[in-house]
Design brief:
The chain is mainly alpha-helical. The chain starts with a helix and ends in an 11-residue tail after the last helix. Helix 3 runs antiparallel to helix 4 (64-122). It has a single domain, classed as Helix Hairpins (Orthogonal Bundle), CATH 1.10.287. Helix content is 82%, strand content 0%. It is found in: Cytoplasm, Cytosol; Late endosome membrane. Keywords: Coiled coil, Cytoplasm, Endosome, Membrane, Protein transport, Transport. This is CHM4C protein.
């Protein structure tokens, strides 16, 4: 298939046709290519506008007709430049929206994986067993504290009398 027919038929890859549409990466790559193409065209038009302005100044009052033609061409180039600016703005917006959507999709997938992992970790845990374990731990901490208190109390060895 020639490049021109690919352009007019959309030029979608075989992989994207099988899946029902382009992948986000393919779409982002094409949007970036289009942005680059339009940016180059912007630079070209800006150069042409500068040339036409220089030509108009050069002809100035000597050749008024040539100066007016140069200004008319400059005006056309400026109009094209404004159209490209609008198109670039639209493409940037679409690219950013697609990037955000792709990021959100990836985040959602990862959150799903994390939820599955948490479910797997918690499948062997029973809330009643956890409560019993926490009570046992608390009891053992209390026993340890009593032992510590008993050891650290001063013994008076006869200073205190039991009445």
């Amino acid at each position: 298939m020639s490049k021109i027919s690919k352009f007019f038929k959309g030029g979608a890859s075989a992989a994207s046709k099988r899946r029902g549409g382009p992948s986000p990466q393919e779409a982002l790559a094409r949007l970036r290519e289009t942005e680059e193409l339009l940016s180059k065209k912007q630079e070209y038009l800006e150069t042409r506008i500068g040339r036409e302005l220089a030509a108009a100044r050069q002809h100035g009052t000597k050749n008024r007709r040539a100066a007016l033609q140069a200004l008319k061409r400059k005006k056309r180039y400026e109009k094209q430049l404004n159209q490209i600016d609008g198109t670039l703005s639209t493409i940037e917006f679409q690219r950013e929206a697609l990037e955000n959507s792709h990021t959100n999709t990836e985040v959602l997938k990862n959150m799903g994986y994390a939820a599955q992992a948490m479910k797997k970790v918690h499948e062997n845990m029973d809330l009643n067993k956890i409560d019993d374990l926490m009570q046992d731990i608390t009891e053992q901490q209390d026993v340890a504290q009593e032992i510590s208190d008993a050891i650290s109390n001063r013994t008076s060895f006869g200073d205190e009398f039991d009445e």
